[in-house]
Amino acid sequence: MLPDYIAAHKSTSNHKNTLEKDSTCGCFHCLKIVHPREITQWISDKTGPALCPFCGIDAVLGESSGYPITQNLLQQMEKYWFH
Question: Looking at the record's lineage, which domain of life comes first (predicted)?
Fold first, then answer.
């Protein structure tokens, strides 16, 4: 079984429909936690992924992923996926 910080990555693309219904999401690049309403840019296809409104990276995880949107998880993901 994969650790959450690896398994959650599959939920960061093709998620526009679910992310727009979430009440929170987080970026595992800049570690900001925001309301999905703040997202204004998406990768050009119709289903996402979202671009973080702060850093512009497509590293946004929504609560509908089933993973907790916490600083701890985002930090673990950032360390694994960006270092």
Answer: Bacteria
Nearest partner of 45 among 36, 63, 58, judged by Cα: 58
Residue count of the chain: 83
Read off the pLDDT of residues 21-78 as tens digits, 9 standing for 90 and up: 999 999 999 999 999 999 999 997 677 799 999 999 999 999 999 999 999 999 999 9
Closest among 11, 4, 23 to 60, alpha carbons compared: 11
Which of these, 39, 28, 41, 30, lies nearest to 67 by C-alpha position?
28
CA distance 52 to 61: 10
